[in-house]
Each structure stands twice: as structure tokens, then as C-alpha cells.
Amino acid sequence: MMSYVNAFLFGGTMCVIAQILMDRTKLTPARILVAFVTLGTILGGLGLYDKLIVIGKAGATVPLPGFGNALAKSAIKEVDKIGIVGAFTGGIKGTAAGITAAIFFGYIMAIVSNPKTKN
Question: Is this entry keyworded rRNA-binding (predicted)?
Fold first, then answer.
């Protein structure tokens, strides 16, 4: 049960931080998104994000910093395997399934729903 609570608290805290940044600063949501992914990448590259995953479980792996961590870990793994070219191919290989799923399900929802433009 505590795994669920920790995941909720960790993921919720990231959402609260993002909301505070949107409300209190002039940062756009896109810049906050990039900052979160970059933070996850840096922490993942330094090996620190794994410690957050132990505590936050899915609350740490699903949000944007978790994506950055996946990019960093995949790139590091590919660099160790094939050399410097792995810095460019590793992130793509490591996150391809998640990106593909997001595109596929987004497309399905666009077909199923009745999207309307805002006036």
C-alpha cells in the first residue's frame, strides 16, 4: 500500500511544482516541460534518479523527469556498447516504445472522439 502512496506523493509533488512555476513565473508550460525532462536527464546521467525511483516508484518513472532518465540511461548504455554513436541512437532506442504508444493511442483517440477547435 505504501508503494501507491509514495507514487502518488512523488508524482503529485512534481505536478504541484509545475503548477507553482506556471502560476508564479513567466515560464511557459513548454519551458517547464523541457526543464523537467532536462532535470531527469541530468539526474539519470549522474545516477541519482535511480534513488528517486526506489522511493517514488511509478510516480518517478512515468512523469517527464522519468522520460529524461530513460533517455540518459539508454544513451549511456549504447555508448558503452557501440561507442560515441550510441549517444545519438541510445535515447531513440530506449524510448521508442513509449513514444510509439503515445502516438498510436493519441491517433486512436482522435478517431474515436469528436475534436473541436476552441473559439
Answer: no
Euclidean distance between CA atoms 36 and 4, whole angstroms? 22
Place of cell 548504455: 77
**Domain carrying residue 18:** 2-112
Distance CA 9, CA 5 (A): 6
Q: Which amino acid is at 30?
A: A
Is residue 93 within 8 A of residue 79, CB to CB? The reply is no
CA distance 90 to 72: 8
Contact residues for 91 (Cβ-Cβ < 8 A; gap 6+)? 70, 71, 72, 74, 75
| Number of domains comprising the chain | 1
Task: For residues 30 and 14, give the distance between their C-alpha atoms in angstroms, rounded to a whole number.
Answer: 15
